[in-house]
Amino acid sequence: MTQINKPIKVLVIGDRATEDLLFRKDFSPLNHKLIKLKRFQLLGKSLDSLLGESFDVVILTLSFSSNEELDLVKEVKTVTKESPIIVLSNNRNPEIEVAISKEGIQDYLTIDNNFDSEEFACLLLNSIANAIGRNGFFSSTNQQPAFYPEVVGEQSSFVDDRDEKFRVVVNSTSVLIWMSDLNDRLTFVNRFWLEFIGKDSEAVLAENWLTNLHFKDRRVSQIVYQNAFNNRQYFDLECRLLNSQGEYRWFFITGVPRFEQANEFLGFVWSGVDISKQKQVETLLKRQARRNYILAKITRHIHKSFELATILQTTTEQVNYLLNVERIIISKIESVDNFKILSESTFPRDGDSCNLSPFLDLKLWQVDLNFDCLRAGEIIFLDRLKEDNRPEITARLTEQITRPEMITSHSASVSFSAVVVPIRVEQKLWGVICAEQCSEARQWTLEEISLLEQITTQLAIAIKQAELYQALENANRQLQQLTVIDSLTGIANRRRFDEYLGSEWNRLARENACLSLILCDVDHFKIYNDTYGHLAGDDCLQKIAQTIQKTVKRSADLVARYGGEEIAIILPNTSPSGAKALALDIRQNIQDLQIPHLNSTTNKYVTLSFGVAGCVPQSENFAQGLIVEADLNLYQAKETGRNRVVGA
Q1: Residue 539 contacts by C-beta under 8 Å, 6 or more apart in sequence?
Q2: Are residues 188 and 88 in the same domain?
Q3: What phi and psi values does residue 4 have, to the nearest 5 degrees?
Q4: Within a domain: residue 481?
Q5: Is 431 helix (H, G, I), strand (E, B) or coil?
Q6: 565, 566, 620, 629: which is the annotated catalytic residue?
Q7: How many domains does the structure of the chain reveal?
Q8: pTM of the predicted protein model
Q9: How would you classify the pairing of strands 36-40 and 566-572?
């Protein structure tokens, strides 16, 4: 990329993205020397504030959706003292380009979708270099930038390709050297060029210098060259050239203007140095950096949640986006015959892409044949399903692909590629992640496999964390249950009774609704324990609690152990009469149990006494009054013969 060693002053108008581009890391030849940069945001503001200022270059970003923007170019030119202007636009209208060129701007660059690309950065930087040349940074003798190194001696001198010494020198070097004239025709090429291109000199000299360039490099190269040609100045560029083996090699090419002794411009002397190895290293480093970035991004997403379902879905979506395949699946595998798909992400390529989801399962991955390999941590590659040696699977695939409702260009011998990577948690097979390409065969690269392995490592950590988190949640839930459940009867304990009664009292006070309470007590329970023993007493309480729990059917009603043999029932949105009816049902159901109580003075079976109370809670009162009323009614039930309901 062009090197700029002298500080410059740039004005950016209309687009923050351009300013960001100038400070990109890969734009370093410019940003280290960008001492002053001024940005002017076009929001209906006047350009008068720029009057009297001069800039080495002005970068103006416009869409040219109206004629007013063309007038803006003229105004900018006026207020910036004829500073060189580079216009960036996504408008490819030829009429706009003609109109702009008539205003004497330095350059007109179209943005398209490659604004952030290295190619566009190179194009913009060369355009800036040309603009600086117009603004007095170039040597007045030969129009070469002062910051460019000399390439072939004094650039104003005459270079004659017929000179024998010149030929000896250029033919003994391993650098491509050639000359072009004012019509862009090649007039001389050295021996290394002929060996590289694999043609004789007559064939080469009949070609344009663009002939052997990669098609993706031609547009940028031609623009850079044309700017240099128009200004008779030095240029450099990076591009790919086709060699005699049909391979493209990267070259760093420099062009130096050559002049007659009378200072008449004759064309350019070109030189090209092979930088393919550097490019390979650069590409490898970029790919490595991109892979590390994406892996870090996926890892962050994976570890954002402790919910296993969220972790798995995030992983499949991110990996699918990264690998650009038709299907990513994560499956849990307990054994050869026990597995299921937990998460899936599909991305069909086109209308012909077969959706394998309805009929492709893990059996088609040959898990039964490769289970031991997966347990050992080996990666499984599957290539063409038509080669499967199990007729029932091949027939099944054929049936699905040839269904009338799935009209595709694929036959029963459709190519299919899949890579199955085991997910091992604590050295044990937990499941697999599978990447599938079902519409065509695919060669999996080492980079893709390595990335999948790293992702499964992170996924295994996240799965273990999720399992530990779930176990902790379950333990906390059980602990929470222990704090509110009576261990003997399995119903709510006194603590839960107090909490629930208080919260329901406040809620029903706001709603102006009724709250009722039933207190019940086992008749002659001390005598029962003395007669049958405490173990039988505990068993009796358990049967009574479970019977009451079954009789109380509403989820909002709470049955709790209030004391030793006392049980309380909180009934939100229930009138005292409704509570009394429920108490009578409970009384009958307890009698139906027919639990023997031979020494009872009330009945030969175990019975209960009930006290019922109810009211519409008032905010200034407390629920204790309701408890007192129910307790008094319970006392009255016991005093009047037991085995009865008092209240309401």
Answers
A1: none
A2: no
A3: -120, 115
A4: no
A5: strand
A6: 565
A7: 4
A8: 0.40
A9: unpaired
